[in-house]
Write a structure and sequence with these properties.
- This protein is mainly alpha-helical.
- It has a single domain, classed as Lysozyme (Orthogonal Bundle), CATH 1.10.530.10.
- Strands 1-2 form a two-stranded antiparallel ribbon.
- The relative contact order is 0.16.
């Protein structure tokens, strides 16, 4: 169960969160999981590793041989435990549930200065979403310009995904094109 649209901050925020999940997890793995909320790093659509409980961050250190790193990233937004723990304390999050993962991701967007651009973006302001993606890139390795040496998605693909997701929450007005 996701955070309700109004509590999340509106359609733009929910669409941006969906775009982040698509970027971090991918459509196939999102479909084979609880919308990504229970995915552990290193999962693939053919070999998903899923958490059994949302009681707490799973803290499973996984060796990612192809990258030469170990990570305990988990959830829809692939939180490291070292990111999750301070956020959970600060926000008073009692568990790793889907709504709390959404709350934590929104807080990270606020902290990096992306949230105002997400809120200002939308059907008529795709440039704001481009700015939000750039601001969030230091946090999420899959965003263009993140610089972590991992796969980074193309900006055009992310903007397309944002528009697709936004259409679910706030259908596109007639005659409006979303151009990033």
């Amino acid at each position: 169960m996701r955070l309700p649209v109004q509590e999340a901050g509106g359609a733009n925020v929910c669409a941006f969160l969906d775009m982040l999940a698509q970027s971090e997890i991918g459509a196939q793995l999102l479909a084979k999981s609880d919308e990504g909320y229970n995915v552990i790093v290193g999962s693939t659509p053919s070999n998903p590793h899923l958490v059994a409980s949302y009681v707490d961050h799973p803290r499973q250190l996984i060796s990612l041989g192809s990258l030469g790193i170990k990570s305990d990233a988990a959830g829809r937004y692939q939180f490291l435990s070292t990111t999750w723990d301070p956020l959970a304390r600060r926000l008073g999050l009692g568990d790793f549930s889907p709504p709390n993962q959404d709350r934590a991701a929104i807080e990270l967007l606020r902290e990096c200065g992306a949230l105002p651009h997400v809120l200002a973006g939308g059907w008529l302001a795709a440039n704001e979403i481009t700015t939000a993606i750039a601001r969030a890139a230091p946090i999420w390795a899959s965003l263009p310009g993140a610089g972590y040496g991992q796969h980074e998605n193309r900006l055009t693909d992310l903007l397309t995904e944002f528009a697709r997701a936004l259409d679910v929450y706030a259908p596109r007005p007639a005659g409006v094109e979303f151009i990033g």
